[in-house]
User: Fold this.
Amino acid sequence: MSVHAVTDTPVESPRRFAPQVLGSMISDAMRSCGLPAEGAAKVAEMMVEADLTGADAHGIFRLPQYVRRLRAGGVNPTPNISVARKGPAVALVDGDNGMGHLVMTTATETAIEMARYTGVAWVGVRRSNHAGPAALYAEMPVKHGMVGIYSVVASSNHMAVWGGTSSLLGTNPLAVGIPCGDEPPVVLDIATTIVSYGTVKKYVMQDKALPEGWLVSKRDGSPVTDPKRTGEGLLLPIGGHKGSGLALVLGILAGTLNNAAFGSEVVDFNADNSTETNTGHFILALDVERFMPMAVFANLLKGQLDELRGDTPLPGVEEIRMPGDQRAVRRDERREHGVPIPAPLQRQLDELAGQLGIATFTSRQP
Assistant:
């Protein structure tokens, strides 16, 4: 059963803002927090891409939180990001506690460069921070004819190990990007919980009741749907014990293997603005051309995907879609018509601008 908020007040449609408005707000905020212009622009580019592709809980929505941590000293605005080549196809990136978007861009570009010569490359990351949606980095190798596989130890723990009651695991997402020539790539981006905690935060911000089945009480396992009680809950994993096990192994590969935080070592960046999180990630890039010409692979894959899309849908299902089908469509639609920003977030961004002494978000023009 789903629980929905009941109200007689009409829901205000989110106002849409041009991507350039989001980018200028983010870049100005980053510069005001000490990031050099180039770094601020790159963070803005990655955050706007998150909003354009529909990852609304990981785009400009996160800006107030990033600013709090930068201003409190929890994130280094001018990091010395270093890359240690550990072998022909392996590297380890130390992010020097910089913005995660900058650290992971360096790591992914390193993996792509190495995979051009070795066919495959695995790059681990430590001393990083929250870097936005996982699909950002899984899709970067796709543009170079490569498969991308990415995961990260989530920046806060909201799940227990299967059968437990303590928050010792994160949503630890997994993203896979697979090129398909001129067709939209396959891009799978999933949390290992039924819903990401960023989505929960969006519901809390709008004071909306949570659907039953997202969180359960740490005390007795009963459903938690009240947005004011989310702190009492644990996120449920996808597929029961299977999702819990997947979160565990991804956490080991992204965290422990890189000497980054995992389990009780994870710093909750929602509650702590000043402590270094030592967030760990990994990115794998695999060159399709090592198996067959890209054009042959793309033609083969397109035929298989079209066959899957063409299956007879179950009653009530409008269409069968592949992972990533809507990313390009949504990106084009939002570039043309703007990114929808809910009124509560508009107010938060305007308040943030006032604190930073920069132009308010709602006053900006594209």
